[in-house]
Amino acid sequence: xxLQASGGxxxxxxxxxxLSCAASANIFxxxxxxxxxxxxxxQRELVATISRxxxxxxxxxxxxxxxxxxxxxKNMVYLQMNSLRPEDTAxxxxxxxxxxAGSYDxxxxxxxxxxxx
Length: 117
What we know:
By secondary structure, the protein is mostly beta strands.
């Protein structure tokens, strides 16, 4: 499965962006879909995950501001980001974890989100 992330861009602090992740194949067979982010000099960190059944999990910094959703029929995953802060500036990656996989085994190329103050 190939993942293609899009929707990044430049936004002012307090603004919103919606990231999209398009999968090349049926994501219903993928257990978890997630968004990660990375800034230069820092490790990639989890933003949010969603199970095949729709159970979500968020990093503390994302709670109340970000919403992850998946549309299995369209093979799409989304990340709605509201109340963006300059510290949210990062490259955001879409990822998928197969059933039985110990870690995320599908990764898309990142999309850059820049939040200006």
